[in-house]
Amino acid sequence: MDLRLTNQEPTEAERAAVDSVLGPPDSAWVGGERGDDGHAAHGGHAARAQRHLLLPVLHALQGRAGWISQAGLGYACRRLTVPPAEAYGVASFYALFALEPRAPVVAHVCTDIACMCSGSVELVAELERTIGPSGERPSNGSAIWLESPCLGLCEQAPAVLVTRAGETPGEHSISKATAVDVSAALAGTSEQRTETLAPQTEGGGDGLRLLHRVGTIDPGSLDSYRGAGGYEALRTAFDIGPAGVIREVTDSKLLGRGGAAFPTGRKWDAVGRNPSMPHYIVCNADESEPGTFKDRVVIESDPFALIEALTIAGFATAAEHGYVYLRGEYPLAWSRLEHAIEQCRSRGLLGDDVMGRGFRFDIELRKGAGAYICGEETALFNSIEGYRGEPRSKPPFPVDKGLFGKPTVVNNVESLLNVLGILHDGGAEFARIGTEQSTGTRLFCLAGCVQRPGLYEAPFGVTLREVLDMAGGVRDGNDLKAVLLGGAAGGFVGPDMLDLELSFEATRAAGTTLGSGVVLVFDQTVDLVPILLRIAAFFRDESCGQCVPCRVGTVRQQEALLRLAADRPRGSVADETALLAEIAQAMRDASICGLGQTAANAIDSAINSLRVFEPQGA
Amino acid sequence: MSVVPVTISHTVELEIDGENVRVREGATILDACRAQGRDQPTLCYGDTLTPINACRVCVVEVEGSRVLVPSCARKAEDGMVVRTDTERVRHSRKMVLEFLGSSVDLTTAPNVDGWMEEYEAKPERYGPPAPPAPEGARDRAQAGHHHAGDGQTAATVAQPVKVDNESYIRDYAKCILCYKCVEGCGTDWQNTFAIAVAGRGFDARISTEYAAPLPDSACVYCGNCIAVCPTGALMFKSEHDMREDGTWDESEQTVTETICSYCGVGCSLELHVQDNSIVKVTSPLDHGITRGNLCVKGRFGYQYVQNRPDEE
Amino acid sequence: MFGAGGGTSSYREVEETDLIFLWGSNARETHPIFFHRVLKAVNNGARLFVVDPRRTGSAQWADTWLGLDVGSDVALSNAMARVIIHAGLHNREFIDRATTGFEEYAASVEPYTLERAAHDTGIPADAIRESALAYARADRAMICWTLGITEHHNAVDNVFALINLALLTGHVGRYGSGLNPLRGQNNVQGGGDMGAIPNKLPGFQDVESNHEARARFEAAWNTTIQPKYGWHLTQMFEAMERGELRSLYVVGENPAQSEADAAHTLHLLEGLDHLVVQDIFLTRTAELADVVLPASVSWCEAEGTVTNSERRVQCVRKALDPPGQARDDIEIVVEIARRMGYEWSYDGPEDVWTELRSLSPMHRGMTYPRLAELGGIQWPCWDEQHEGELFLHARLWDEPKASGEPAPFNVVVNVEPVDELSDEFPIRLTTGRRLDSYNTGVQSGGYSSPLRRGESLDLSPEDAASLAVAEGERVRVSSRRGSVEAPVRIDSSLRPGLAFMTLHFPDEVETNILTIDATDPKSGTAEFKASAIRVDKLDVPAAEQQTAAGANVAAR
Predict the structure, then answer these.
(1) What is this model's ipTM?
(2) Would you kindly state where each structural domain of chain A is located, as residue ranges?
């Protein structure tokens, strides 16, 4: 590709950062020293095929320098044969990348809806008072704090993610953060401080299907995992063969837990049968739905389970390459999964001959960089491939044309986790759990105004009231005002819905959704209007901008809500709520992807079910 | 014996607004609508470009589909039942037109006024436009961060025109982010990749790397982005200047098709002539050689024929 | 090729081929819209090989760039042939069916071992080998070339060398496989089609050997045509040198600036008895003329046809009124004929075209309305039902034996460029075009291009360092024929020992002072691509140079 690059030279640090991902350049034509390569060069398709390394390279640049400079990006472009304008388009797509000089240490302070219920508003006010405004570097420091969307530590709110650029870049999370913690983080004296909150597992996870190893095994030890029955499912898979695995998964009636509730068995079958090769299997661990933290808990405490399940999926669908796309805000999950993959490779559970059974399979880890939309499966493909994380048009569907245009299975972490139990008990046995249409158990992320927040597992069909009771009910004995089911893309229900059965079919019938399993509880002390404004701001920030209904609709929705919140409607309140309904309808009907189609759901439900803007409401 | 490969073409039959229509396999719903004489409004669609289906103004209802589908991109299928004029369709089209009309300057976008009327779009109901962004402000927007304002004015993409070279201007206040320029500059044709979409959400914009001026970018001034721009956001500087001076008058222009005088490829040129002077050069989209594309010489290299000494 | 002079394939086929060799062509800059087709092919998965001394914009798209030393094309192609033959990948069946001379050819390439080719071309042996195997193994493959092949003293041999590769592998006469010269100038193809070459009547009918055709023209024109080849341009200059050619009528050419060894050319033109120049500009050549006939601009002030690189005849149309007394080229010619006593009947350009159709069988089906309706027609087009030929030489694949004359292999040997490198002239200068400019700049100089930088001597970073010259510094560039001054531009796409200039800005830097007029005996093309030069710093203190450069900028 005839790239045009500026003459700006990258710094040694930038060069080292890029080379740390790609290795040293092998010719002058890709940024190495000029030597005797003046009579021939190889490039073309092979060079352009490296584009999928763009995102890791951008992370390396950001991590080394704290921002991505034009010279640094230019060097990355030369190495990868990516046009600079495109690379810039990709880098500027992600919230965690800075394209202007930025302080090396950044505290990302969650201001999203779960944290709003547990002190983030006060924390931000305190930070503004003691440190200064968001984004402003204090005169004496090399650090700033920034407001952040949900960090996935909702059960330990308020949450902070600290990123530190430099020779040995690092990231860590701080839960239940105070202004003192943030000051320490900015001074460089803080470290990872989070817990694993899955209260059902205290004293052993007996009776749990998905969380039974959480807290009982050492997530850093493959032996510990195998001691608890790990890798028995893969052995079973090898015994029954790919068709047998797909049959069991189909018989289990397992529905995807990512939100779309598509039958997993059908997906696997379609890819397994597709004659186009290679096949890919992708684990979507980019959970960024506000209020969701289940993938984090599972990966942090049981990483080998995900690797085993992914290996089974690869075996069943004739895929040799698996990807785990983990959101960028999960440093502990990242390091534990990375370590687990290394262990599996060194012990023959990943690689050319898995378990000595002649099956080749390996997993690549990819880190998101702050883009909720990358949880949409086709946006996730683009992100892995080194493009902007914009959703693709469907059809074609991923089972036909997915990652790199090849047949691809995309599964959520929770969906994959279920496969282990299905192979252990058999699909038919699994199908007896839960309800007729929603089989198995479900992970629920309980947060907000709840007594014992954390990750809970319960069979489908459990009622909302029962789930709340598991978590000790509403905090401090307060009255329940509303529950947000399914996250920002889900919907609010009122106290009148406590007996709602939590299954795909029952929630659908009630006009709401289980979504990602969020059960975010608001008591009567919470004003829902700021919550709605935060949701609207979230969608405006996270819209990829590709299609008009979502790009502009999320802005117009926010503007109308701002007018209502300030009690300065254009026309009457009813005019504004009618306008919001019109906006919602267009976004739902005409957006390209699920983000736009659901971006008005929560607000719509708050207005129409909870009647937030009516005098007697809220 | 060797022959030209022939592709055997199958056809599919679908129903559009109650009428059956048969089209070749691979045709889109839009193709089928056009074959039936029911054109649909389009903004981001380009005959010579891969459909990006971003504007969503061409959406239609397809039986069995939960959401509306873009007619420009969705392939027609046997037995498909399509409706192009339902309440849902009209609503989405109206809203798309309102969203664009309230955030983008559409004064030089052809056809839009008619559609606004047809779909009863009222862009003004979102409030008065917010003040234009200062120069460069939108170029620096950080993904995931925005300034919300108070909702009393409608956010827009208004900003100063970018004039940084003698060939084109870029008036991004008129940009609907249809991606056509990016596709034309990119894999669809030119493969120069001088511009891409940068940023995210409402702050997404067409940009060079780090918003560098065009002369510092990879741009080779082929003008193929201008050729596909549906709103006049990208414009030849000659046309822009004449419009500024009030001398641009399309009713006084003739368009003559001829062949470029430079290399031997044989590109078709359409010479737009006003007052015996070439004021713009385009190429027909359906021309087999160029498919609407030219290089810098074909697009701008005509000046020598009219660098005439003042006559008399 | 094998008869008619034109590319064998259509642009459309380029998109659908599996492998493309761009040989001595920087189509990315010189044929940008053709290169779109190459890019479509590449994006469809086709592999691209670019043979060029410079790592050009085109080369940067290549899967493999073969950066041969200037003028070693035959060494490369012969070595590729040897690799193909030794690997048993030559298409024996096709060779038997459709060609002659294979055994001699095979024997002739035998000395071109990879070791020798690596030495002669500079290209690593494995890159040559891989490229040869890829070309031979591809189902469909194209070779496209431009002036990098033909602006050499052995231009025709270079072309034969490429044709040999196609015959060896059967990559010709099939859809998606072919041999395509990309015409550097608008209507170069049409000029040949219309007989504006010394050995052919319109429609590539040979003046000496095609008696039937000659008789047809004689009858139509009511005159006698000598069965004798005329002179090509170089031979004309040789004739001027000998004093045999005393009068010259130049139409739309600027030889005073476009010919190699410009000083010598100028001297010859000045020595003519009578020089007539018909042009749209008062070119440097026109300034020397006894009579200047102002012409209208063919593509926008007149009507007619042109032919492009895929043999497509296309209509040009009048959009503007020509200025002043400028007149249509045909009208001028008709008027001159009239003054010479011939009353030609002439009723517009279509009239001429209709006569051509009656005399050139390959154009017979191309009526004006059909040309407009079909967006041009590719020759041959035998009758009004024929849509023209997508590709040529399908006959070579006829069963059981190719019909018509078999295609001959032509034995060619590698010969170094005439202008040898020496201690005194150690740097190889090659010339070419840039995207936004054209030839001597008389047309392209008229518009203001944001890309234009003016003329420069492009040097590798290594040569610039060893000469201790900086970017923008003016230096003296000398060849065995003369010297010019030019500013230096450092270009990392050049390797040490290789320099580059264009011919676009003769008023700034007359590059053709440096080039050699060694020409190919068959085609008459001069070796613009290979001069030996030396570069000297100017004896100007650095401070003064700075000022001079500043003044230059300010003056713009």
Answers:
(1) 0.96
(2) 12-91, 105-186, 222-429, 441-523, 528-608
